[in-house]
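Thread: "does anyone have the structure for this chain?"

Original post by V.I.:
We have the sequence but no experimental structure in hand. Need at least a predicted one for the grant figures.
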Amino acid sequence: MAESTRKLATIVFTDIVGFTKITAKNEPLAMRLIEMQRATLKPIVEKYKGDWMKEMGDGLLLTFNTTKEAIDCSIEIQLTVENVANLNLRIGIHQGEVIQQGHDVLGDDVNVASRIEPFSSPGGIVVTEQINASLLRDPVYQTKFIGAPNLKGIRQSVRIYSVISHGMPQGVELPDDAKIKSPSPAPAPSASSSKMPMILGGIGLLLLIGIGFMVFSGDKSPELKEPVVSEKSIAVLPFDNMSNDADDEYFADGMTEDILTELSKIKDLMVISRTSIMKYKGTTKSIKEIGKELGVATILEGSVRRVGNRVRITGQLINTENDHHLWA
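Reply from O.Q.:
Generated one for you, tokens below.
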């Protein structure tokens, strides 16, 4: 077992915009895009003395010793990938204490970075108040407050700012009541429900690829001396509606149900029922707490956000024992 150390770090979380759709349409292209991302970004991260901690599907987890190194690296990354076809990124940055185990980091502050990233505009950067306080000391950087959403599984208050200098696009300003979790009841299906099969087909394929890899390769952590749950077990938490329109709650609930249906077809995979997981809709409990209550090794959580005719879908597969992101 790798030795654990605590340290203060600036955490950067990135993912590729539209990667689910690309994978559904052209899997070889998606795999080449991952390789291109690695080849393009690693030299930039090394230039700013960053640590390439983990790749999670199309997502990256990076850490830096200073805020300036992290923000300058992120800006250069976004300016560089502008010229790379299909490599369109969102970036979220937060600073806090992390627990480092070998080539991995974990902790609540790591989760904050991953939770704020979806609020970035494509090609943009969002940061928390801790990062923004450092940027205010240097007039070279300009930011704009976009909101203080209630982030799922995060108990600390988080204010999000969009970097608007250096040619970065401004993030969408959130309404006062914006949340990643929406406790309002789902309305009856509307005419827009005809779009659901197409949306579910795209994300469903990618999610099942990631889950299938996890299930059959296994996350066999040597430190688990007395496993109390099956490694091949999963709960799919209700997908969150991040849109301003309550009608989109139907899309989020429909996505959860379709994924549950497809997962139940995988032999030897224990899938928690919809009845059991719906009580966690809008919960503030941590992944570890939910995993312990349901007796599962992994949890899949996700969100749906629609702006106009565009739909943004995210999904994360998390190890309930150590809160590690296995796939995103």
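V.I.: this helps a lot. The radius of gyration is 19 Å.
O.Q.: and Residues 189 and 250 are 6 Å apart (CA to CA).
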